[in-house]
Amino acid sequence: MAEIERVGEVIEASTTDFVAQCYELYEIPPLGSLVKTRDSSVELYGIVYNATTTSLEPHRRPIARGKDETAEEEIYRSSPQLTKLLRSEFGALVVGHKKDNKLYHHLPPQPARIHSFVHLCSPQEVKEFGQSLDFLNILLNASLPVASEELVSASLRQMSQAHPDPRAFLVAAGKELAILLSGNLNQLKAILGRIKQ
Amino acid sequence: MSERLGIVVSGSLNKGVEVKLDSSASIEDMAVGRFVTIEGAKRRFFGMITDVSLGVTDQKLSLTPPDTTDPFIAEVLAGTSTFGTLHVSPTLVISGDATTMLEGPQPVKTVPSHFSVVKQATQQDVELVFGTEDEKRFFIGTPLDMETKVCLDLEELVKRSNGVFGKSGTGKTFLARLLLIGMLQKGAAVNLVFDMHSEYGWESRDERRRKVKALKQLFPSKVAVFTLDEEGSRRRKVSTDFVVRIGYDEIEPADIALLRQTLNLTELAVEAVYQLTRKFGRSWLEDTLGITSAEELPEDLNIHESTLQNLQRGLATLKRLPFLVASAPDNTVKRILEYLDAGTNVILEFGRYTDIAAYILVANLLTRRIHARYREATEKAMGEDAAPPRPLVITIEEAHRFLNPEVAGQTIFGTIAREMRKYNVTLLVIDQRPSGIDSEVMSQMGTKLTCLLDNERDVDGVLAGVINKNEFKSVLSKLESKQQALIFGHAVPMPVVVRTREYGSAESYKGFAPESQAEEDIEKLWE
Ligand SMILES: Nc1ncnc2c1ncn2[C@@H]1O[C@H](COP(=O)(O)OP(=O)(O)O)[C@@H](O)[C@H]1O
Ligand SMILES: [Mg+2]
């Protein structure tokens, strides 16, 4: 199988989500993308819901440096240490797991382990995961810093790219949402507006 | 191929089931009257769509409709937030239990379980239910959007009186002609038709002025045409078998009673007729017309001057009918019976006498006597353990004139309709105003074939006594304005909407009567 892209390492974990630090500054998997991490027996799937880039040392905020530079790249070129002082992190909501080669669209028994590697899922895996739309319910019910319509629409747009017929996938997902959000027309409209093709 | 339409979501045996339409099935493709099958967990059900409706999960959707000009949003919402529902009446179980396996479709006694899949009925399903044409089944039409044949069980049909209804121009005459052909073809019964507009015996013209053949042309050896209007029939080149004349002396009080409204007679005038016949005997009509004032009446008659005048005016109207003569040269009833006994169907054309008074008088007068003879023959046959006379079906048009609540209790037609096949005589009534027919008579009818009716009271009248009446109301009022009919009753296993079998083309005639072929060839020689 093709080399799966390794994007980071878990630095914080709970039953419902985990936070990973990226190996390279700014090399953050896109909002809504499907990532996975594993311990000895279980593979955990997460959907990227948030990302931050901050100073490595919590008490030292970066300062503006570009007053005399003509382009942003110049700043990094003239202060190469910067990439070592900053770090990018992302949070992923746990949406399922795989055990003994079987995919479950619900939470695993154990949270992710610190320092476990985080990979971006291949299109094949994304497609396989998207066979069931149960994860939408998890996304809609989580309390997150981003609005759930943003997250849901981002993940569906991402996932649709792995499908041979992205529109058909989005219609099916839209129908699932119409059922889940039958009492919340405004939210439904907001999501559909963001995924319509 | 059977297409999935949706799933059962609720319902009851009495009211039918609600089916949520799949989003892949377009509500606009659904039509009431169409057949579906329901794949229950253990049994397969067969039923008809009786209503189609729209639903939304969130009422807000109806208030602030989403942007459905966007095809994506429209597609997502179809079948989820907005959905179609079908109302289906399951009426038969077509497979899944022992009885249906052995005896064919059975009436339903339960409903399919939740979420059973509903599919469009296939040709095979429909054939299984409505049978194929055979010695006793007659192909009457095709279900909506299908090529399958719906067949009537004619043996069942002639066991009771039946009705053909529909407003004017919807196809009653065409349908009745088909029924007559069926009975003739399958030999289920012998017919006597009181043909008010001369459409059943010999060719007439349809609405588009095309010539349409009738029974004598298709079955020359099985049909005799009697006429009241010899001249008219001759002009139309009808080959008639007998010219009907009726003697004044044949008219009885009961005939006058039935004509009370038509002739504008008072109750007293009708009462007077009974007195007059008692006094004068068979010559009462002429004797009554000969009297110039009430003073000339025999003393023991209690008839006032005004009553006498009222009666005389009415009788004079009758007397002007040219087919009425002082005394008839031949006995029409006897002739009709001779033909019927020989298995020949008799069609009595009224020609130019389309006046309702003439029709009521003649139909009533002849039927009364023929029924009496059938009654004698049946009773005799029972006593001697011999074969009863051939089943007779009498066709009358404008049936509400004979069977309205006011007269149905007294007339021969009311009697025949109520007694079922006791004396082997039943009626085929044709009417455009079924609400005018006595409800008891309506409820005795075995099979009803009804074309479009748009008057609420007529719809109610036809459907009186039907289970799930309201569902069929919507089916009935949505029929097309021509050549479509709802059929229900004993001759079909379940109610069915058909497009009536084509009648009038050369092709159609061939399907009815191979013997008409020879005749057609002869006609060609003359062209
Ligand atoms: N089975 C049929 N085949 C062909 N044409 C039909 C059929 N039924 C009805 N029609 C058409 O509809 C018209 C009206 O039918 P008709 O039987 O005369 O109506 P009604 O007796 O109800 O007034 C006919 O002239 C004919 O053109
Ligand atoms: Mg007619």
Question: What's the short story on this structure?
Answer:
The complex is a heterodimer of chains A (197) and B (527). Chain A is α+β, with helices and mostly antiparallel strands and 197 residues long.
Structure description:
The complex is a heterodimer of chains A (197) and B (527). Chain A is an alpha+beta fold. Chain A has one domain (6-195). Chain A contains 7 helices and 7 strands. Chain A has helices spanning 72-78, 82-85, 123-129, 135-141, 148-160, 166-180, 185-195; strands at 6-13, 17-22, 34-38, 42-55, 86-99, 102-104, 117-120. A 6-stranded antiparallel β-barrel of chain A has the order 1-2-5-4-3-7. In chain A, strand 1 (6-13) and strand 2 form a beta hairpin. In chain A, helix 4 runs antiparallel to helix 5, helix 5 (148-160) runs antiparallel to helix 6 and helix 5 packs parallel to helix 7 (185-195). The radius of gyration of chain A is 18 Å and the shape is globular. The two termini of chain A are 32 Å apart. Chain B has a 12-stranded mixed β-sheet. The longest helix of chain B is centred in the last third of the chain and has 29 residues, at 356-384. Chain B is an alpha/beta fold and 527 residues long. Chain B has 3 domains: 4-130, no CATH class; 155-245 and 330-525, 3-Layer(aba) Sandwich (Rossmann fold), CATH 3.40.50; 248-319, no CATH class. Chain B has 22 helices and 23 strands. The chains are: A alpha+beta (197), B alpha/beta (527). The A-B interface holds A 167, 170-171, 174-175, 177-179, 182-183, 185, 188-189, 192, 196-197 and B 23, 57-58, 60-61, 64, 66, 70, 72-73, 75-77, 79-81. The site of adenosine-5'-diphosphate has 18 residues of chain B, from helix 6.
**Shape, per Cα inertia axes of chain B:** elongated
The unreliable regions of chain B are none
Poorly predicted runs of chain A are none
- Tell me the Rg of chain A in angstroms: 18 Å
| Beta-strand percentage range of chain A | 25-35%
Shape of chain A: globular
Give the helix tally of chain B: 22
How large is the share of residues in beta strands of chain B? 15-25%
Task: Tell me the count of domains of chain A.
Answer: 1
Under CATH, the homologous superfamily of the largest domain in chain B reads: P-loop containing nucleotide triphosphate hydrolases
